[in-house]
Amino acid sequence: MTKNRLYIDVFFLLLILVVCTIATIPQLEAGDYRNHIIWTAELAERHYTHLPHPLYQQVTLIIKSIIPFNILNVLTHNAFEIHPDWYYKFPGLLTAVLSYFATALLLQKRFINYITTDNKFRQTLSWIATLVCMIVAPIILFTLGERLIVGYIKPNVWHNPTFNLLKPFALWIFFFIVDHWQESINGRQWILLSFMTSLSILAKPNFILSFLPALGLILLFQKRSLRRLPWKLLTAMMIPAIILLLYQYAIKYYANSDQQLVVMPFKAVLAYTGNAFNLFFFYLLSILFPLLVSVFFRKCIEKKFEFFLVWMNFGIAILTAILVVEQPHMGSFNLMWGQNLASFLLFTYCLGWLLKNLRVLKQKNWQTATIVLALSLHIISGIVYTLITILFPGPVI
Predict the structure, then answer these.
(1) Is there a contact between 158 and 146 (Cβ–Cβ < 8 Å)?
(2) Helix 55-66 vs helix 187-203: angle between axes, to the nearest 10 degrees?
(3) How far is CA 78 from CA 67, 72, 83, 92, 93, in A?
(4) Average per-residue pLDDT in the chain?
(5) Of 117, 125, 216, 382, which residue is most buried, by most CB within 10 angstroms?
(6) Residues contacting 268, CB < 8 A, separation 6+
(7) 390 burial level (CB within 10 Å; 0-12, 13-18, 19+)
(8) Long-range contacts of 294-298 (CB under 8 A, 24+ apart)
(9) Which residues pair with 327 in a beta bridge?
(10) Cα 6 from chain centroid (whole Å)
C-alpha cells in the first residue's frame, strides 16, 4: 500500500491554482467578470440585487470583508487606493480561485479512491486526472481560423465566474447521489444535500434544471415504482429546487415582461454554429472522448447507475439548449450552461472509469489508441484555448 506524500499534493494543487489564476486574471476585464464585479459593487452599496443567482456576489463580499486592505495598501504602496476598482476585482478573483480549489480537491479525492492502493503512482495519477479534467476543452484545432470556442460544448471556460463557482457544488451533489441513491439518507444528510442543492441553484440554476429530471427518470427506471423511489433523497433536492427556481423565474421573467423563455427549436444553437452540419460536427468534437469510452466499453459500463445518470443529464441539458431560447437576449445563451456542465460531468465520469480500469489502457488495440488520441486532442485544445485567452483576452468568439 502506497503512502500519500504531502509534497505531491502541494505541488499539483499549486500548479492547478497558478494555471487557473493566470488564465482568469485577463478575464477580469474582458470576460463576464466585469459585469459580475459591477453587480457586486451594486449589491454592497444598495444591499439588494436584481440577479436571480447572486451567490458569486455574496461570496465575493464575504471575502472582501475579511481582506486586510489597510495592510495590503501599505505593502503595495497604496495600490488599491490608486486603483479603487481592485477593492472588488481582487476579492472577485479570490472567489474564482476558491472555486478552482474546491473543484480540484473534490476531483482528486474522488479519483484517488478509484485507483488500487498497490499502484505506486496512485497519488500522482489522481492529480494528473484532476488537472486534465480542469483544462480539457472541445477539439477546437480544426476551426481556429474562424472561431475559438463559440458553438462548442465547453466543459471548462475562463470567462464566466458563476459557471466556475457552480462546479464544486455540482460535483459534490453528483458524487453524493452516486454514493447514496440505493440507501435511505438520515436527517443530517437530508439537510446537507438540501443546502448544497440551494447553493448550486444560487450559483447558477442550469445544473439542477437538467440533473434533477435526469435523476428522477433514472430512479423511476431502476425502481419501476413511485412508491419505491428514495423520496428522502429526492425531496432534499426537490424542495429547495421548486422554491428557488420559482423565485428566480419570478425575478427574471415574471417581474420583467421584456424577458421571456420561448420554445424555438434550434434557434439559439444554430445562431451559435450557423448550420446543422456545424452543429453536429462541433457537438461531436466537444464530447469525443467520453463518447468513445462509452461506445467501446459499453458492455462494461452500460448497466451502471452513474453511466445512465451522466448521459441522461447530458441529453436533457442538450434538449433544453436546443428547444428553449431566452428572448430578447438570445445572444446571452444563458440556457447553454447546462450542457457545458453536463459535458464536464461526462469527462469526470469517463476519466474516473479509466482510473478504475487502468488495465484497459495497457491493451494494445485500436480502441485504446483511439481513446488516448481523442483525450490527447482534448488536452491539447484545452492548452491552446487557455493560452489564447491569456495572450489575447477579449470577447468570447
Answers:
(1) no
(2) 100
(3) 15, 8, 9, 19, 19
(4) 93
(5) 382
(6) 321, 322, 324, 325, 330, 333, 335, 336
(7) middle
(8) 294/350, 296/367, 296/370, 296/371, 297/353, 297/357, 297/360
(9) 260
(10) 27
User: How far apart, in Å, are the Cα atoms of 89 and each of 2, 14, 67, 95, 322?
Assistant: 42, 21, 12, 10, 35
- Give 264-280 pLDDT, tens digit per residue: 888 888 888 889 999 99
Q: Which residues contact 244 (CB under 8 A, 6 or more apart)?
A: 198, 201, 202, 205
CB 323 within 8 A of CB 263: yes
The set of cell numbers assigned to 377 is 486532442
Phi, psi (degrees; rounded to nearest 5) at 304: -80, 140
Residue found under cell 480542469 = 134
pLDDT tens digit string along 170-205? 999 999 999 999 889 999 999 999 999 999 999 999
Contact 303, 222 (CB under 8 A): no
Cα–Cα dist 91/68, whole Å: 11
